[in-house]
Fold each of these.
Amino acid sequence: MDLLDLKGIGKKKKDTLRKLNIYTVSDLYNYYPTSFEDRSHKTNILKANPDKKSYFEWKIVSRSYQNRTRVGIITYLFAFEEETNQKIKIIWFNDRFSHQKLKVGDNYKFYCKVKSENGIYETVNPIFCELDDEQIGNIIAIYPLTSGINQKQLSGFIKESLKNFDKDEEILDTSILNKISFNTKLDNLNQIHFPTEKENLMAAKSQIKIIDFVKELIYIDYINQNLQRKQSLDLKYDLDNILGKLEFKLTRSQLISLKEILNDASKDQLMNRLLIGDVGSGKTIVAIIAMIIFALNGYQAAMMVPTEVLAIQQYEKNLDLISKFGLNLGLLTGSQKNKDEIKEKLANGEIDIVIGTHALIQEDVIFKNLRFVVNDEQHRFGVGQRQALGKKGEKVNYLTMTATPIPRTISLRLSKILDLSMINELPKGRKPITTSVITEAMEETLFYEINKNLDEGRQVYVVSNNIDADDKNSVEKLYKRYIKQFKTRNVKKLHGDMKAADKDKTLKEFAEGRIDILISTTVIEVGIDVANANTMVIYNANHFGLSSLHQLRGRVGRGQYDSYCYLVSKHADNMAKLNILVNNENGFDIAKKDFDLRGGGKILSSIQHGRNISQIEFLNMASEEIDKGFKIFDYLKANNFRGVNFSYVEKFFEMDKRIILN
Ligand code: ADP
Ligand code: MG
């Protein structure tokens, strides 16, 4: 069934819905509200709080009048509230049409603020509807919108779509639902879009989240059991010899992870593994060694990273090591000059290992025999992009690396159903990073601290959340301020809008120690690695999530120096969140605290999908819900998934083949 078949949806509205990522009838009823407005309690004007919108019922008792004034057209009429025996003046500014919907002598529902002006009750531009309309008198779901559609229309479309609910979307049979005391998905959706009572609404949200999570668990298990493609691969390598060429000794958990990866790669099934490790734990080198081993066996390997800056850096950092094995390393990014040359060498097999951005998945990039793909920090990629790279080889093994902190309790349980390696220690000799939260007013002190570190020969990152907005802490404004403040130092800026060549140059200079202070957007958030930099200053710190802040902080503390992180907050209040970082240095602990603060995440999806952020927000789960999800999953698995509608599970993930770990 097409969206056009729904009442009220024409071609134009269909296009509008597309902007909300709604393409099908199912997308419509699976479009979750982000908040709710309780319009369910009727009150009267004597009891109502003048500062809050409330629900009233009034009779229209006059015709309407219009005045043309300097500020525009004012229309008004009078209504009467029986309960209190009071008259209310209803006023519209610059709205000549709404009043036409109100008939003298009829009763209507209103949702508005009412205040008393010189003894007359007044309301301005109220929301109103007929008595039998559900828009007022209920809890109302509020949806994210786009221009061309309003709440009422969207809600109406969703109501229509629910009449065409696809029963296949019930992934559990009624017998199972009864057993776990859950309602059907249809009932839950109805409750979410058209809530009747708060408790029911909460229960429905919770059940939808849990079942969605269970669906993912089932799917992971399903892939692992059924869909893995066979390969025959027999990698030959002398690990001691290879590790002997490194400048350092791998940590114990790096070594275990590496062996798990290599073990996968010599099984008869394709590798599909997730490597989780905190910022700075040394994931990259593990992947690089695995890539080297593939290459030494005559297969090509590719690493896809989220930013150009990072690609360049990884390339430069690993060039020497890879060359030591007589292998050719290539770099491929969107704005590179010798792209054609690189492409040719990928096609004829001259390049053994390539590091690049999404430029790697362009159609005209052809590999000779790609066999291993590493996605670094893949939560920045969409599912489709990741798949595209995998399609460039016949039998591609996948390794996904992420610092997305997954609370330990969850990852331990997850590891029973998916291939997961964890690096849970930092390389030896790392110094703790002293973190402080300061307010903008303390910038002078900050400058003093920065100067001290610069005097000792260290380098400094300064990060802001925006480039050039109307904010005194934008990259541009900070740049101006810092140049003035640090006249004798080399201050440079870096942001995503710069030309690749300039970014490249700036980054290189910073890595070589020729720039003292680098003022940047979060392009440096992922992966950048300069051991001499020991100071990280983050402006507008409150605008970042805890995990992002932790990632950013992880850019320092990579060498033998004491390191510092300053979180600059606009105001002295709301610092509680930032203090979590002061008191915790471990990403998992921070995730755990974040978890307690916000409720957990939709674990798998947050690793896998780079989309539907608001929906994921909606799907945030509390730890009891996650427990419940695992319980249901365990029960289903123990019963051979009897009562599970696999056809839908399969259909749902059809477009997302291999999203699980690639
Ligand atoms: P992340 O896990 O955040 O991607 P990286 O792979 O960037 O971390 O590693 C951080 C830094 O630690 C890099 O400079 C890397 O060379 C270094 N490193 C990795 N493993 C070790 C180790 N076992 N001993 C010392 N330094 C290491
Ligand atoms: Mg990294």
Note: The chain has 23 helices and 23 strands.
Amino acid sequence: MLCHAKLRVTQLVAGLFLWGVLCSSPSEGGDLVTTVPSHHTASGYRNSSTNDTKGLGSLLKWRWEALWKNIPSADAYQFPMAENDSEFLRSNREKTTLTWIGHATLLLQIRGRNILTDPHFSERASPVQWAGPKRAAPPGLALEDLPPIDAVLLSHDHYDSLDDETIRRLAERPTAETTVYYVPLGFRHWFEERGITRVVELDWWESSSTDGKLKVTAVPMQHWSKRTPFSRNGTLWAGWVVEVEGFRFLFVGDSGYGPHFREIGERLGPFDLSAIPIGAYEPRWFMKNHHMNPEESVMVHQDVRSRKSVAMHWGTFVLTDEPLDEPPRRLRTAMNEKNVPAGDFLVLRHGETIVLEQEAETAP
Ligand code: ZN
């Protein structure tokens, strides 16, 4: 009995860690003068298309209800790992490839450039490594096996996307000098504190081109930011569009479903390849504004006009109430209902690489 109570308390404490990851009571702040963009506030940033008023009471309600749902822990899952060819990935300069390393961490190789998204190679998505959401599967590619990284794309400050230990390890690599970090507004100082100075900080719809060939654009997402009890929406959140020699890639990052996807499709689409989140969506009354479900992920695939999409933000950390292996099943059903061909929205195994030629194909 005592053991049972202890488990419940542990779950509650773990849930409070998630406050910084998943839920919100966004600070709307006051408007600055009218010349600044409408998503800027006096104290930070806000979403363009949703008013979310959920606060601490809603958070506690969610955590309290979750206590009685017997949500399986990360240890309950065994995901099949793909065997990738890290030697090929390190030497590849010609082929366009995408490797799902886990959660929102992807390696995109395009026209000889290596781009890493939301790098996370640590055991937990948490400010500490002794508590908080633990991995259900190891990184599908070891950090040491990565090729030299040209660009890192960061979506926002939550612990499942921005991992301090991983950023420090990346900065210690012999090839770290050449890595450019593309970040939303408000992160430059955080990176400089870790000795990283090649930081390009962008607002929504702003673009940067370091060598005239690789163009990176920040795009709006419907999310929020919080990393400590004292900060809330003080840094911006964003998705990223990468364009190289006519090839267009969209990294959604973390977002609820909203009209911004259609706008991204209209302004910057169609996309040759997109990475779209499919997990961390239950319960809907609490998550809907900031996390899409698989049915909405299919709508995003169509809204942005993506030729091929890859699922991400699932199967790695237990962050919300749905079973960790549920998102791919729901995605398949939603694709059938919307007549999306099976090969157009792929669910990869951890570590799996796809090679995109004229037509994408799975790597041998
Ligand atoms: Zn997040």
Note: Residues 2 and 8 are 10 Å apart (CA to CA).
